[in-house]
Write a structure and sequence with these properties.
This protein has 13 helices and ten strands. It is α/β, with parallel strands linked by helices and 290 residues long. 42% of the residues are buried.
Length: 290
């Protein structure tokens, strides 16, 4: 192995240290099946979906903690029907000892179901600290958002970063997943240029069927041109196979410059495949170190 490849391997392996995973409230059984393949202390985000209720979300966070991982419950601003709903969720997390870390999202509904239109409105209530939250994750969109224009996205990101710093609360960013490293790192450079220095977790799809990946990409406005997906490692003309993020992570390691990009980590969107993703990560690290 030449010196350049050695450096890339080291960087690629380092990027996978302290990776995080994502699950839904219905994935507790899958988490239990995958527990032995997930490093202890791994941060596991628990989504806030419209077809789940308060107890299901709280139970999922409790299960994450019980199995030796760090729960990061999502809170969807637009899905909260009232301030009382918000406080009940926070109070439940605090009572269970799972309120240290949360991740705030605006949410999918076109119109808010209650008083909160976006993540910033949740931060501005001051309730997060009151209920024991210490660290808050917020969203980033390297390839934009299908329903929100670019200037609005940047204004929201800077506003949330400033509001967290003022409280003060620790913060980090998790990006939407993508298939092309170039726009992701260009976006990270712009984040740093705007004075946002918190850690960024790069969203990466876990290994999954190509058809499923394409479906999620279309939903979230992720670029899927023939050249982009070919660079990632699969073809839009063959939707029958599966694809993993091997090539994406190697390209990311090759282009990652801590001096320009700051602290980067990896966040896996598992699409329900917790065990497949964690086992893939272990194999990738082992093969990279070989």
């Amino acid at each position: 192995m030449n010196p350049t490849d050695t450096v890339r391997t080291a960087v690629g392996t380092a990027l996978l240290e302290d990776f995080s995973l994502e699950m839904t409230g219905k994935d507790v059984g899958k988490l239990e099946e995958a527990r032995d393949s997930i490093p202890p202390g791994t941060r596991i985000n628990v989504t806030f979906l419209g077809n789940e209720d308060l107890e299901m979300r709280l139970a999922a966070a409790r299960a994450v903690k019980r199995l030796g991982f760090v729960p990061v419950p999502h809170i969807s601003a637009r899905r909260l029907g009232s301030r009382d709903d918000f406080e009940r969720f926070l109070a439940g997390l605090q009572a269970d000892g799972t309120s240290d870390n949360v991740f705030l999202v605006g949410g999918d509904p076109a119109y808010p179901e209650g008083p909160y239109a976006d993540s910033l409105s949740l931060i501005d209530t001051g309730l997060l600290q009151e209920y024991g939250v210490r660290h808050v994750g917020i969203t980033g969109y390297p390839e934009g958002h299908p329903a929100i224009d670019g200037p609005t996205l940047w204004s929201a990101l800077q506003g949330k970063h400033a509001a967290l710093a003022a409280q003060p609360l620790e913060g980090s960013v998790i990006t939407q997943f993508g298939f092309d490293v170039d726009p992701v790192l260009a976006w990270v450079e712009e984040v740093r240029r705007r004075g946002i220095s918190v850690p960024v977790r790069i969203g990466v799809p876990g290994p999954a069927g190509v058809r499923r990946l394409m479906s999620y990409a279309a939903r979230f406005g992720v670029g899927t041109s023939a050249s982009v997906v070919r660079k990632y490692g699969f073809s839009i003309t063959n939707l029958m196979g599966t694809a993993g993020p091997d090539r994406f992570l190697r390209d990311l390691a090759a282009a990652y410059d801590p001096a320009r990009h700051g602290e980067l980590k990896i966040h896996f969107y598992t699409f329900g495949g917790l065990r497949a993703t964690s086992e893939w990560a272990a194999r990738f690290r082992k093969d990279s170190a070989a």
